[in-house]
Amino acid sequence: MPSAYSRNENPSHRVQGYILAGLVTAIFLILIGRLYYFQVISGEIYQAHSERNSIRPVTVEAPRGLILDRHGIVLADNRASYTIAAIPIEISDSTIYYLAELTGRDARVLRKKIRDRSLNRFKPLPIHRDASFETVSRVEEHLIDLPGVTVQIEPTRLYTKGVIGGHLLGYVSEVNKAQLVDLKEAGYQSGDLIGKTGVEKAFERFLRGQNGLEYIEVNARGQELGPLEGMSAVLPIPGQNVYLTIDALVQEVAERAIPDSLAGALVAVDPMNGEVLAYVSKPNYDPNLFPTGIPTDIWDAIRNHPLHPLLNRVANGLYPSASTMKIVTAAAGLEVKVIEPLELMQPCVGGFKLGTRWAKCWHRGHGKLSLVDAIANSCDVYFYQLGLRLGLERWGEYAREFGLGSPTGIDIGDEHGGLVPDMTYYDAKKNRAWTPGKMLNLAIGQGELLVTPLQMAVLTAAVANGGTLYRPHVLHEVTSPQGDQVVQGGESIKGQLPIRPETLQLLQEAMIAVVNRGTGARVRLGYTQVAGKTGTAENPHGEDHSWFIGYAPAGQPRIAVAAIIENAPHGMAVPIVRQVIDAYLSPDRTPPSVSLRSIRDNQP
Amino acid sequence: MNDTLDRPLFFITVFLAMTGVVMIYSATHNASGIGTSQYMMQSIWFGTGLIVMYLTYLLPLRFLQAVTVPLFILVIILLIAVLAAGTIKGSSRWIRFGAIGIQPSELAKIAVILILAQYLEPPRRNIRRPLVLFTACILVGLPVALILKQPDLGTSLVFGAILCGMLLWAGLSIFELVLFISPVIGILIAVISGFNWIVWAIFMLTLFGIMYIKRPPISLIVALIVIQIGVGLTAEPLWDSLHDYQRQRVETFLKPQEDALGAGYQIIQSQIAIGSGGMFGRGLLQGSQTQLAFLPEQQTDFIFSVVGEELGFVGSVSVLILFYVLIIRGIKIAVNVKGSFQSLIAAGCVSVFSFHVIMNVGMTIGLLPVAGVPLPFLSYGGSFLMTSMILSGLLLNAWRHRYEY
Q1: What is the C-alpha separation between B246 and B148, in angstroms, rounded?
Q2: Which residues have a Cβ under 8 Å from the Cβ of A429 and sit 6 or more positions away?
Q3: Which of A6, A469, A602, B328 has its CA 20 to 30 A from that of B306?
Q4: 8-state DSSP, A39
Q5: What angle, rounded to 10 degrees, do the helices at B7-28 and B303-336 form?
Q6: Which residue of chain A is at minimal alpha-carbon distance from B404?
Q7: What is the model's pLDDT at position B97?
Q8: Which chain A positions have a beta carbon within 8 Å of B169's beta carbon?
């Protein structure tokens, strides 16, 4: 209902209407006046700006943080490099062909890359990173005929030790399209470098700097006239420095100790805290190939190499643990009390009869042995019998308590958990159904069991240090470019071995016996007592793999090592571990190796 | 012919929207990848908007009054829904119904105009009573609070303009309005001046001066002084308690020139684009700043720069004059319609148009901060184009019912 009182008879409306109309008129006059000033009075100035010069925002790349070892030795640095870049919106097809000619690139590939529709067409797109001086000179010389092409000086990653530590450090390369979709929010743009594997990937968030921005005036021929006045540049912020627990010397000795012609892996950790001292996978590759774009022929050579250099064998190499597993089987036997320490098993006559099967020992006959002697001589027959007494379930339980069958939790991630088979596993595999004979294999670390060298290093460290299973870590600390500590890496305990001190002591004694009077004699060092265990993994596809796990000094362990050499003669890994332990503990070493913990504790 | 249709208003609306389609075509036609068909989308929205505008124009007064409260409630529910959906997958201003996405914050402009008109309509409402002012603030503040959370500062500010314009039209004098919004001005002054107490003292003195001349009721004076001192004491600690990113957002809004990466760059590019247009412009599809896409957001918030570059002073002033006529027609309607309800609606529509045009053009020519306020009818975007056309429809509707009350 229209009501009488809602009549719009407010007499002030006419007045207010005029006031408002006046106000609006005044504001519009101001706007028009400003437009007149811009477009008519100073229009020519802006026309000049617009016609002759355009403003180009240019990213100033921030240097990545350094990666250093525990003593401050630089492992990953930055160096200056020339990058030839094209600005997609400004470069014509004929210029692309000319540029391809000058730089020796395939013109069609280049055109496809530059004309990619998902690009930011105004941002210079790096097309030739780390161009050689000759190439840069050629391009610079013809820059006047190359509108839309720029040459920039950028920091590029330099892995100072080349192939040394390649798998550990990982590498950086241009962020790819699929990653960009997720990383746009975090400020990544096409052409940016990002850590792809290893430390570079795991600690990307610390290492990556914040790019700066500069406004450059550019004329119609694409020549840069210099920074735009009145627009302040945003300075790049360098990335943070990452200090690793790695000992560069030990790492280097280990990488050189394994011949380049062989595949293998070696991990050394500090048994008292889980700090990783060396992290070696062979064959290795040079991470310096990646930041500037790896040439196709080299990439193909690496990819098609029969030994697969890109495979990180430390954390992703899966092997039967072989006789090194006898440590675990022995511990299980003592703990569930199916054997006594001094009990003698049926004599080894070079093999063992189970039903109709004759399971061989590696030796032609060890005779009657007690536990320590069985480990020292690595007698298979003793452990066949022990395995049968234990059974799959109890054996598997202890294997898992020793950290096998699940990832170690190392802070750079990217690892396999391996496999400790259980009944469910065999039930699921119809063609590999469980038979008691399988227990013989598992007890000596053969068969379906799969472990990584990293897991074995952690296991060795736990036996050495009295039963603590550490989560291995490579991050010591992160510091700002000014040197202030930002983040401190630290030890983290994964669990305790569920075994009694006397059992542990017996295992340690046995491992000393292996070195002093058994299969591991070649690891002996004059100045310190080493303890260890050998292993030979049967390889149905070729020559056997050689294992060695060990630690030193026995009693006050400072280093625990696990090493495997693929397709190598029996015992090949033993002297390699000796070199590594020697590199770390040698009294002649200058400067002597130090425990990071003591450095840290002595700091105010 | 009947004289129920305000033909100038109708044709200006249509002409501006068509200009928008042409400018969007010019700004995006050679953009590679996304956005090649944005002008097509805008054309479709324009066609739909034309129908919706005509339907709005035809709505009976009674229907408009009946639909006001349900519409307001619906909008609040939608805004909450957007927030709830936003907490699941990040900031969002959109709500989807199948293939159609709408921005509830746009619909909220219409709903708030209608509900304020309905609430302020009866003359027995004494606009000077604190309770009435307070209720009006709540009606506007509720959707604004939800929109601010999205967060969308530019859109939130429009509601301030609606409230001021309609309060003014409901009988508040300009001086009273200034007093009314003085706490907000106080906060802005405090933040912009970097909590300089001398600036704040000058502001307070000015305020007292106004009160001395106008002599408002003593209760209002006391209330204002208490609020101002409260604001003065709490502003700085509150400001300090904000997160860095929140402070940065506000500072970028107030001082865009210091944000060299974002807003500052846009302003410079926008000024070069407009300035290079000269007297007659470089012609459609000829603007180098536009065609090289040096200007970010050129088809949305910076569409006026494209007009300036390609159509020159003549073109941009023509567009401004069209807006000017539209606003003056709106004021004329607000003055001349008999019913208070329609008059207040017209005042609300005029507030929205004036605010958007002045803020947007002021921003593109560097007079006002970059607030993300689009230009009615011209800027790319379906929800806002639709809202603008409905607002035109409401003005036409008010004129059609000018003898009713």
Answers
A1: 12
A2: none
A3: B328
A4: I
A5: 170
A6: A2
A7: 60
A8: 13, 16
Q: What is the pLDDT of residue A473?
A: 95
Quick one: closest CA in A to B342, which residue? A8
Compare CB distances from B265 to A28, A57, A117 and report the shortest one's residue. Answer: A57
B310 Cβ neighbours under 8 A, 6+ residues apart:
B23, B26, B277, B281, B282, B283, B284, B285, B286, B287, B290
How much is the CA Rg of chain B, to the nearest whole Å?
A: 22
Partners of residue B326 in chain A, C-beta under 8 Å: none
pLDDT of residue B287 exceeding 60: yes
DSSP letter for each residue of A145-166: G-TTEEEEEEEEEEETTTTTTH
Closest CA to A294 of A132, A173, A167: A173
pTM: 0.61
Residues contacting residue B240 through CB under 8 Å, at least 6 positions apart: none
d(CA A54, CA A228): 10
Q: Which residue in the block uniquely carries the two structure tokens 């689009």?
A: B374
- Give the pLDDT band of residue A563 (cuts 50, 70, 90): very high
Are A50 and B338 a contacting pair at CB < 8 A? no
Q: Is the predicted ipTM greater than 0.85, yes or no?
A: yes
Contact A68, A242 (CB under 8 A): yes
Q: Which of B260, B312, B341 sits opposite A234 (nearest CB)?
A: B260
Q: What proportions of chain B, in percent to the nearest 5, are helix, strand and coil?
A: 75, 0, 25
Are B352 and B160 contacting, i.e. CB atoms less than 8 angstroms apart? no
A344 neighbors A369 (Cβ within 8 angstroms): yes
The pLDDT tens digits of the residues spanning A166-181 come to 999 999 988 887 887 7
Q: What is the Cα–Cα distance from A368 to A22, expressed in whole angstroms?
A: 114
- Residue from the list A27, A36, A54 with its beta carbon closest to the beta carbon of B313: A36
Q: Pick the closest to residue A20 from B330, B321, B118, B375 (CA basis).
A: B330
> Helix B153-169 and helix B104-120: axis angle, to 10°?
20
